[in-house]
Batch of 3 targets.
Target 1
Amino acid sequence: MGKKGKKEKKGRGAEKTAAKMEKKVSKRSRKEEEDLEALIAHFQTLDAKKTQIVETPCSPPSPRLNASLSVHPEKDELILFGGEYFNGQKTFLYNELYIYNIRKDTWTKVEIPNPPPRRCAHQAVVVPQGGGQLWIFGGEFASPDGEQFYHYKDLWVLHLATKTWEQVRDYIYYNDVYTFDLDTFTWSKLSPSGTGPTPRSGCQMSVTPQGGIVIYGGYSKQRVKKDVDKGTQHSDMFLLKSEEGREGRWVWTRINPSGTKPTPRSGFSIAVAPNHQTLLFGGVCDEEKEESLEGDFFNDLYFYDAIKNRWFAGQLKGPKSEKRKRRRGPKAEPEGADKQDSGEACAHAPLEVVREVVAEDGTVVTIKQVIATPGSSTQPQSDEDDSPEEAGGPWVEPRPRSNAMLAVKHSRLYLYGGMFEAGDRQVTLSDLYCLDLHKMDQWTVLVEADPETQEWLEETDSEEDSDAGEGAEGGEDEDDQDDDEDSSEEDGGERSRI
């Protein structure tokens, strides 16, 4: 037993050492990348001082490689952009733009405000649209000593007619549809008739009992002006179904279900209930401000009946004892008040509780928690609900979240994980809940997890203490000296959610 335990401990020590080494390499890589980003930012600051278009006849460009040389689509000109040069000790990167006139055999240096950052080994292509456009994608930036590299993934266009640079955001939304044949293992692109959803991400799909496909919600961003985007939370619904009598042909139809519809949101989760109804849970509604993004997280429940084309709010009965108390109290009055307050609200609308969470960095985040009102279920209540033997405990429900996992088995809905945000901190959940879809009484906690105890490491935090503990346990103390050297390094940067 002793020898076996020693071997296992030694094996765990090796694993911990490998994990620490990977962590240190990752930290050094982040540090090097940040150094390069700072250098790139410095050069961009210098470029920002250029506010006018300046065209200067010049001698041929200095030596360079990995630049792009493109042909003007309408003129007898060549366009040279970017490149690099190494003099044996130092690496130079360029974002200069040169025009070579083929007929006159002359060079012109063109300085245009807001150019792309310096780079080499990028991709370039010219198209004739709009009087000619030069498109630049990606490329590489190297440190002066040539030992560190930063790789771009940005996209730029030079409008040749107006001589203006424009950065094009690197996101593209699609609304195409593909099918996969389980017999031939091949993909096919569909071309449905009718008007379908606009391009988007994060939408949810579910199958109807008739074999159609329902598309709901999603998120997309549109450019409203230069360098400014506006996000849209979609709440529209579409049905994709095969055309009658035309095999292999599909048609889009926009549908407008009745009933109590979910509020606009993204990041919600869906599952199919035993009665072929689509079940929707949670999500987040982002409120975009000038330089911030605030999210209202939900924990409410909705059902969509494809046959009736109707949404239903998933109201829970609540614990038995709670129902008995509410039945004795004046519950009709507040429900009537709710009806008057909101003309669109259902008589059994969920209760919204707004609370503020203060993160460690002092950021105040508003979280909206949607609580189903106990005793408001439209399902008939039996006389047995008042029996003392069945009196339940306190009200239990999952905390508001987005991107949770849902599954239905034996008429029970299982909810696992997800996330919510508190300031700059993203809290990832690992709890597990169960809800009986027949009884619709209350959630049952199967795995409980306290997010307050979850470890959150800021990029500026020292790794000395944690690594030292691992070394003591794994018997690999010699690596802790390297950890002490790394502990003085600080990583910067902020996290943003798109």
Target 2
Amino acid sequence: MGKGGMSTEGHGEGKDGETDNMAAWLVGLNSLKILPFKLPPLGPHDVRVRMKAVGICGSDVHYLKTLRCADFVVKEPMVIGHECAGIIEEVGIEVKHLLPGDRVAIEPGISCWRCDPCKEGRYNLCPDMKFFATPPVHGSLANQIVHPADLCFKLPDNVSLEEGAMCEPLSVGVHACRRADIGPEKNVLIMGAGPIGLVTLLAARAFGAPRIVIVDVDEHRLSVAKTLGADEIFKVSTNIQDVAEEVLKIHKAMGAGVDVTFDCAGFNKTMSTALSATRSGGKVCLVGMGHSEMTLPLAPTAAREVDVIGIFRYKNTWPLCLEFLKSGKIDVKPLITHRFGFSQKEVEEAFETSARGGNAIKVMFNL
């Protein structure tokens, strides 16, 4: 087993035959078990981290419910989890910027640094990316992990470990705002008030967007969006026949042109609405991946020169996320709605809570 949790050995014992490191393993459809997790040797540029906070992502739930997410298929038992922060327990001999006892937020993807995207600085597009809890790479819902030190970011004194774990979903919003060039002259529409829609709302405000409208099918999540600073909210339907009427309502709510729309759901209806609502010359950024294929009004979109851009994960976002959290420009604490410990029963309850949705936004493990 190497860095990033790549494994051909499955789970195993800890040092000297002791089972001192346990992890939450996805062992089958709707089946999670806490089992031993053998760590790889500590390399010269690695650190060993004791996990303290791990959040549940929608992709984690998707793997649990279907054993796949997009083209990634779980074919053998896999440790789950990738939104994480912890405390350094041991550092490799070449690690200079971290010490045992340091609290760190962890970027979960290890790129190759040799391919063209990596050399161009777009390492998030690396075809050989080893990303926590993406088959066949093990995740981070464990007592301890080994990870490259350069992907561990020291937390400011006023930023908690839970907030550190939230840097991962927040990074999606930050990367989306960078891709869409959000600033003080860009009015923003957000389709979807789930966890990613809400962190995109927080990021867009931190980047200076003067007016933000967010829509969703769920009234509770819209109320959360309002408390987080959305200027206007309103409930939409799932019926694609309602797009034209809802676009008129969006324009009225915005009170100006929609410069950038973030589709944080990724369905036929949300993307059609985004393309229709965005002003001529504006941008639509596809963030969510609800549908892999869509039928969309691209000809009228092209005639209005609306740019369509996509994002995949993130790159070089942790320093800015931590600065936003340190300065108070972004407060992610209200997003953490449920907390669980690390027992078999609590792991099962946590994933059931996250899968149900309802008033659950971010479910967090405290290890």
Target 3
Amino acid sequence: MGGSSINNNNSHKFEDTEKKSAPAVAQMIGFRATLTWVFLTISVLCVLYSSNHLLYDRQDCPTALDASAARHLEGLSNVTTSDIKLVEDKEEAASHVPALAQRPQRFDTELKHIMFGIAASSNLWEKRKEYIKVWWRPKETRGVVWLDKRVRTRRNEELPEIRISGDTRGFKYTNRQGQRSALRISRVVSETLRLGVKDVRWFVMGDDDTVFMVENVVRILNKYDHTQFYYVGSSSESHIQNIFFSYSMAYGGGGFAISYPLAVELEKMQDRCIQRYPGLYGSDDRMQACMTELGVPLTKETGFHQYDVYGDLLGLLSAHPVTPLVSLHHLDVVEPIFPHMTRVKALHHLFQTVKLDSASVMQQTICYDKDRYWSISISLGYVVQIFRGIISPRELETPSRTFLNWYRRADYTAYAFKH
């Protein structure tokens, strides 16, 4: 009995202890549950706040496209590529102090500081001179047309001065596919320099079937220091052309610019340089060979257009990049840039826009009509295209294939850009 009494006492003690600790355990469990609910509530609130912040605070988005990408760009009814670029430019400027130090330096180059050298052929002069009349400005533009022999001239024709190129019979030319006229044309810059025209900062070379937007020539060259060595131009649209010649070569039909001090150095050595490359095909690859010997690389400006293509330029011009349109070439080869017009009349039609807004002409703008579910591409002064459905800017910036490559057998694989 004594043992059972002890056991009973112990059992009562255990029950008392258990009763005393039960409220404490319950209190602890309740406290943990409360903390858990508080934590979950705060987490939910944070998620909701972040979602609301991302959806409605457009200032934190790098571009207006990000917020609506998941909805297939449906919310972009008023967004254009110009708007996107403006947002990016503002953010970039704000991230640098001082902002004024980041602005590109300008060198006050004007049209009067530019001397044009135009390579022409007497056989094609009567036809090609009409292209020159489209862009030439008497008493404003300065330059010379270099021909292989004399041609008939008429009074009061709004054309540059005409001169005959120097004799190149003493130079070697061994390329079986090319023509010796390449030697003559390659010396246009040097021969123009030798005329001794004053106050020249840049020499710009082009062909007689090259049309320049002279205001945009000034805009482009104004970015560069004319007292330094600069060789400015662009490549061909044909990948095979660039392989045959060079991606580092400025194509002469699209036009290129050479700063005055570089032209001086070129003139000193060009004839010897030409003799070292008798096997080259054209004039522009001879020029690039001499530039390489002088140690001057090509500065690329995508507004110069060689247009080594056939057919309709609609696909290329409607997707023109956001850069000033500087030149158009091979106008005899492609279709008139506006339908139901002659080539020359179509160019005059384009220049009505050039006179109003030369800086923006041809540049592509993309916008959307959410209500009609349209994607709209505008090439200023040229064409407006409306596509059903919401198409991304990346797709709209890809040129449509309305043209053929210079090498037709490789038409689908021989472009230097995505199409």
